[in-house]
């Protein structure tokens, strides 16, 4: 299922910004003055008087670029399970796991993984 133009939900976009993830993306969550969130393309021009806040709405590709290939001897694996759940995790082999998260939406699983890695000091991020 693809929603939000294939971008992470606003909840994860806000969390990633609060963790100081550099705000560079093709898509943005814009919170308008009246409080309604919308996703807009990077090239869309909006007057700042009508925007109360904005957050990078990272895509699967953008999150994939941010996630490390490996942590120690564990490599990143993304797979779709039988019931349609996406799993993003770090494994030594498919039997020995370091950590994994899952979600029905791939971009959400990847956002959850990036948040976990940053919060648990498994990686550093560049600030804006």
Provide the descriptors you would attach to this structure in a database record:
3 helices, elongated, four-stranded antiparallel sheet, three-stranded antiparallel sheet
- Biggest beta-sheet profile: 4 strands, antiparallel
Low-confidence stretches: none
The helix/strand class is alpha+beta
Mean pLDDT: 87
Radius of gyration: 16 Å
The domain tally reads 1
* Strand-residue proportion: 25-35%
Side by side, the strands of the main sheet go: 4-5-6-7
Broad shape: elongated
Number of strands: 7
The DSSP helix count reads: 3
- Which sequence of SSEs, written as H and E, runs from N to C? HEEEHEEEEH
Terminus-to-terminus distance: 31 Å
> Helical proportion?
10-25%
Summarize the topology.
Layout: H1 10-18, E1 27-32, E2 37-41, E3 51-56, H2 60-66, E4 70-71, E5 74-80, E6 86-91, E7 97-103, H3 106-119
Antiparallel strand pairs: 1-2, 1-3, 4-5, 5-6, 6-7
Helix pairs in contact: 1-3, 2-3
How does this structure look, described?
The chain is an alpha+beta fold and 128 residues long. It has helices at residues 10-18, 60-66, 106-119, and strands at 27-32, 37-41, 51-56, 70-71, 74-80, 86-91, 97-103. The chain is elongated. The two termini are 31 Å apart. The mean pLDDT is 87.
């Amino acid at each position: 299922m693809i929603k939000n133009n294939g971008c992470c939900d606003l909840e994860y976009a806000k969390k990633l910004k609060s963790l100081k993830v550099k705000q560079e993306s093709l898509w943005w969550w814009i919170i308008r003055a009246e409080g309604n969130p919308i996703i807009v393309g990077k090239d869309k021009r909006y007057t700042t008087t009508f925007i109360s806040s904005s957050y990078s709405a990272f895509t699967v590709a953008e999150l994939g670029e941010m996630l490390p290939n490996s942590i120690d001897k564990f490599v990143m694996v993304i797979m779709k399970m039988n019931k349609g759940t996406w799993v993003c995790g770090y494994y030594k082999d498919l039997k020995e796991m370091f950590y994994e998260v899952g979600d029905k939406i791939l971009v959400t699983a990847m956002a959850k993984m990036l948040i976990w890695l940053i919060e648990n000091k498994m990686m550093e991020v560049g600030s804006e």
